[in-house]
Structure formats: structure tokens, C-alpha cells
Amino acid sequence: MMIERYSTDEMKKIWSEDNRLKIFLRIEELVIEAMVKTAQCPKSVFEKRKKITPDKDRIAEIEKKTKHDILAFLEYLEEKKYIDSKYLHRGITSSDILDTATGVQVKESLSVIQNEGFVLTKTLLSLARKYKGFPCIGRTHNVYAEPTTLGLRFLNWHSELNRSFKKVIEAFKDAAVGKISGAVGNYGNIHPRIEKHVLNKLCLKRELPATQIVCRDRIARMVNEIAVFASVLERIAVNIRLLHSTEINELSEGFSPGQKGSSAMPHKKNPVSSERIAGFARLIRGYSSAVQENIPLWMERDISHSSNERIILPDIMNLLHFLIKDATRVISNLNINKQKIKKDLTEAGSFVFSGRVLTILMEKGFSRKQAYELIQQLVFKAKETGKHLRNLIQEDRKLSGKFNKKELDNIFDLKDFLRHEDSIFKDYLLLERRK
Q1: Which end of the chain, N or C, is more open, meaning fewer C-beta atoms within 10 Å of its C-beta?
Q2: Active-site positions?
Q3: What does pTM read for this prediction?
Q4: Residue 270 has pLDDT above 80, yes or no
């Protein structure tokens, strides 16, 4: 089970044994309520049921004897004289209770995750809007590439994160299902009306048709989408870590009063939260692999999935919630080193506009190979000599006279290079509103 350090209060409550037992009792109660509606149980018996709060310690004690959690729970209800036992758990099987309870817990978790995820995506979009128009050097292979803007970088992060989060929400909804259909899922000892009543009350979808259990592709898909989402967060975290490095130092995590970076080196300010996000993503991807193995169960069911799910589901819900809150805090408190960003863009030099020169030369009739080799030679010379690429173009006998002053001004105009930023933002936000 998830250690206290990385647990959240909300998820601890939802996935606690106390809450799960309360859900068990609620399901049993709804089954009997449906039996009353279908004249299978006297209303007076149902109304006289005993109000109890399941005692997890007593149930655990009974389970030592039964070696079966639901039978221990049922024995406890009989012990407490909850209701006339001939109406208790009639026509249903353990997994009707277990899987339906899991569906309820998934649904409860969704309400928490949805709210926190909205805050995260909104925070990142606000950051993108704030730094729209602020130029920086783009990097590919972690090497200077071409100019871009900090706003576009953050908008790209938002796009990937928001898309993935929507998939997580869809997968949660797909996993929020239940069944009250008996030992092999065909309602042999119970009427489908009972299931419909119970699941309507719990706001869960039906697993139709079912076996003894809800098919595990639903849980696997949910965990897989969580793993993708965690990997997307890791991408953001990795880039923050790279930009936080001493040599680049364009971004850094916030550092609160009294915070310490190293027990041995007082000068250290490490990107520990981003590193933690990366570590969690690795763990979640491992869980994703395990739940895949739970899909190919035998015939109408075996129990090989149960043991790892009891660990994975509470853990991954806590991890997901903690990750979202941690990422929101990191993004909200990012330090943007504007001076260093401007310095790096300046130091990148004129050669970062080499692609524009290449494109225009091709437009002027040069073959791609010829244009590429000409510009590459001049770029390398610009790096070695510190000369501006524009001056080298004007001095080159093959290129002098090929460009007029206006064309050269335009090639090395940063604002012109970034002229489509507005339309990218506009088109992206329009697409998001339509979804």
C-alpha cells in the first residue's frame, strides 16, 4: 500500500478499508431494497434492518477463519443481526460486491482527480498566455535550433497534458461499472431488474454481458491512460530539470524559505520535485505492465488479478493525485530567468536563422544540396570567427547580390520569424473551445 509520505487525504479516505466496507454494506442494502420492489422481500423486514457501521477489525478477525473476505463480511452482518439472513446476499456472488465496490471507488476518485486536473491544466495555460511573445532559443537534441517563444513551449506542454488528461477522464468513466449478475454473469439466480436498480442508485454503468467479474480491460485501460498521463508530466518535469541545470539556468523550481538542497553543500538548489515526478512516472508505468496481465483470465474468471489490484489501485490513485498536486505547485512557482533567456538567445548567434537562408535560396533557384552546403560552410565560419551570418553572406562571391537589403533585414528579423505565434494560439484555443 502507498506509504504515508505520498498519500493524499482524499484518496486515503476513498480507498480505505472503512470506506470499502461501507460500500459493501450499501450494495447489499440496495440488493435487498430491489428485492422489496420485486416482491421478493417484505418491506417490513427491510425497514427493520439494523443500522450498523462495519467493524473492520472484527471482520478481519472472522476472515482469519473463513479465508474469504466477503464471507467474513456476511458472517459479521449475521453476527450483528443486520437483517433476516435469508434475504442477505441472495442469488449473488462475491464479485458482484467486490467489483461493484471498485466501480464506486473509481467514480469517487474521478471527482477528486477531475477537479485537481482542471486546476493543473488551467495553471499551465495561464503560464503560456503570460509568456506569449517572449522569445527564447529553441533546442533540439538539447542543442540550439531556431528561435521560438516561451509561450509556445508552455502551450505545447498544455496541449499534450490536456489531451492526455481527457483520455484519463474517459478511461475512469469506462471503468466506473458494476455487476449484480451472479456467479457466471447470466442472472441464473437473480433478475436483471435487481442489477439495474442497484447500479442506477450507485450511478454506475452495467457490465453487459459479464462473467463472474467485470472484464479487466477496463481497469487496464484506465491504468494505461494514467501511465501515459504520468509520462507526459514526466516530459514537462524533465524539461524543467534540463532548463534548471547550472549551465542553462533559464527556469528553476521555486525554493521556499527554510528549504535545504543538500546536507553537504549549502549552495545547492535542486529540482527535487521534478525529479520526484519522474520517479513516480516510472513506478506507474510498472503498474501499467502488471494490469495488462490481469486481462487474460481463465474462462468465466480466476482470481489471479485480485492480489495485485488490492495494491495497485489504491497506490495508483494516491500517486496520480499526488502527481497532479505536485506538478501544479511546481508550475505555479516556476522561476523564469528572463535575463538568462535573452542572453542565451543572443549568444545563439545569427546562425540560428540558417534555415531561413536555406529556404530563400531554394526559392531563388538553388538546388537544395547546393544551398545547404553553401550555408553550412558560412554558418561554421560564423561560429569560428564570431562574425554575423549576414555579413558573411554579403562577402561570399556566390551569394553577394542574391539578396537585397530588405530581404536580409527580413531574414534576420526575430519578430518576423515568430510572426505566426498569434495564429497558433488563436487556432489552438479555438479548437479547445470546440471540444
Answers
A1: C
A2: 141, 262
A3: 0.93
A4: yes
